[in-house]
Design goal:
The chain is of the alpha/beta class. It has a single domain (2-265), classed as P-loop containing nucleotide triphosphate hydrolases (Rossmann fold, 3-Layer(aba) Sandwich), CATH 3.40.50. Helix content is 31%, strand content 27%. It is built from nine helices and twelve strands. A six-stranded mixed beta sheet has the order 6-7-8-3-9-10, sandwiched between helices. The longest helix has 15 residues, at 137-151.
Length: 270
């Protein structure tokens, strides 16, 4: 599993995280929720190894993250950031192919098969010959998704792999928001991959997460199964607005989250 224990992170006198714990297991979709400035992206960067925590420790499959070499770590976890700066005129298929760079020992034919499959999975195969800078923001995000899928496509003998998504739906239309999160859930089916995603949309979190972490001011307010957290008064406390949930009409055991001062008009779930 990917595990963070008692994580703290400070820059000078500014505390961004304090005593935060987090576990992502294989076959599990964990969503991190919280207002702006809660520490969500900082937590993801600590989990990925991009930041070294001030206190606490992160381990991946039982080994401290700092003991993984960068090339091997790149085969075990992939990160989709909020934005990926790339201004050079690479073709889309070349951007996706970059995700295969940690796997140089794999046969070329297999590499190309994975690149093509990752592009199809992310619904960008028809953009393969386009120049990356010419794409819309949403198209670029889907290309970057294909790149990180290609990066961790192969099972390894080092244990489960992990996909870390930092606000992956922010540039996408509604259909592609659901498509991206559905892809992430599909990747869990083999039980050899765990996903952690930072989201802002409470209903997307309710529909796709297995567990939810609630952060506020760098601290963990609540953590647990989606049904428990989505029926929790902590949602209102964390986001500072009234919150009510109703049973989802199509997804058993899931809820729709209604926020704002009109929540009194909603019919609560039974």
């Amino acid at each position: 599993m990917l595990k963070a224990e008692k994580i703290g992170f400070r820059i000078a006198q500014h505390r961004l995280l304090e005593d935060v714990g987090c576990v992502v297991g294989p076959g599990e979709f964990v969503v991190v929720l919280g207002p702006n400035g809660a520490g969500k992206s900082t937590l993801l960067r600590v989990l990925s190894g991009d930041l070294t925590p001030t206190t606490g420790a992160v381990s991946l499959n039982g080994r401290r993250l700092r003991n993984w070499s960068p090339p091997v770590l790149a085969r075990q976890r992939a990160v989709l950031p909020q934005q990926s700066a790339l201004s050079f005129p690479f073709l889309v298929e070349d951007v996706v192919r970059m995700g295969r760079s940690p796997h140089r020992a794999v046969a070329r034919e297999r590499q190309e098969t994975i690149v093509q499959e990752a592009m199809r999975r992310a619904d960008v195969w028809h953009l393969a010959g386009r120049l990356y800078p010419s794409l819309s923001g949403g198209e670029r995000q889907r290309v970057q998704l294909a790149r990180v899928l290609a990066q961790i496509w192969d099972p390894t003998d080092l244990g489960p792999r992990y996909l870390l998504l930092d606000e992956p739906t922010s540039a996408l239309d509604i259909a592609h928001q659901h498509q991206l999160l559905a892809i992430a859930r599909e990747m869990l089916s083999g039980g050899e991959l765990g996903v952690l995603a930072i989201l802002h949309d409470l209903n997307l979190a309710s529909a796709y997460a297995d567990r939810i972490l609630l952060l506020k001011n760098g601290r963990l307010v609540a953590a647990g199964p989606v049904a428990e957290i989505m029926n929790c008064a902590d949602l209102a406390a964390v986001f500072g607005i009234p919150v009510q949930t109703i049973a989802h009409p199509q997804l058993a055991g899931r809820h729709l989250v209604i926020t704002g001062h009109h929540v009194s008009d909603a019919r609560p779930s039974s």
